[in-house]
Request: fold
Amino acid sequence: MFKFKFRRKKETREQKEYVEKQVKKMPKLVSAIFLIYVILFICFMIWYFTFRSIYTIYDVQGPSMSPTINVGVANNDAYSKEDFVYVNKTKKVEHADIVVVNVNTTGDSRNDNLIIKRAIALEGDKITIRIAEDGYYHIFIQYAGQEEVLELQEDYLKSYEEWTRTKSTYVKSSIYYENEFYNTFLVSGTNVTVIDGVYYYEVPEDNYVCLGDNRAVSKDSRSRGTFSETQIQGVAEIVVKDGCKSSGLRLFFKKIGSICNFYWKEIEKSLIR
Reply:
């Protein structure tokens, strides 16, 4: 009976040297990978603690910012879902920013004293709310330092029709003003300017006119007056949709997705500039 023996092919000198070189490289490769991991971990921790120091979470209460920020549909005296926002405590407020305001002038910042609105007019701006040519209420504004009066086209509003139908009108010199705005800002004559026969309110220094996107139901500057700079808690930059009813991994990925989406938009803005 014949027996076959399979002999291992003898390695050449070049092959042995190649293998030895690869083996020597392994510790360096592992060290490089570990170093990259440590650097990434440190960068993440720096970003995390910086993010936590700048941003705070605010749960949205009430429908005044719908549809931009929602509390869901009422179901058995409770809302089926709620959005929440990350509020930048350090950002300077700009036009159209969504802001969290403390309506308690004593400084008590409990959640029931905080409201969320949109900054429409800043100090030095002249603003009025009246019926426009389309038959609906619109905001007309002359920004500080400019001569032109602009009619704001607010694509974030829930409904011009609902806003106009819900709020009453005050007529003065054939101009149809929103009654609530007129009674709060124009009737006293304080800080009031007339431009082309229309009454405008000039926002005082370090004050803001902030309104909700759902103007039909929002209790905002039209009834509360302007908000001072000390009442502004921060700018709501990141919105996490349906976040309050999520948990675990689902909530984690919602947060990460919303944060990444925000940073991506910021990068796009910087590239456009």
Summary: The chain has a mean pLDDT of 85. The chain has two domains: 14-57, 60-272.
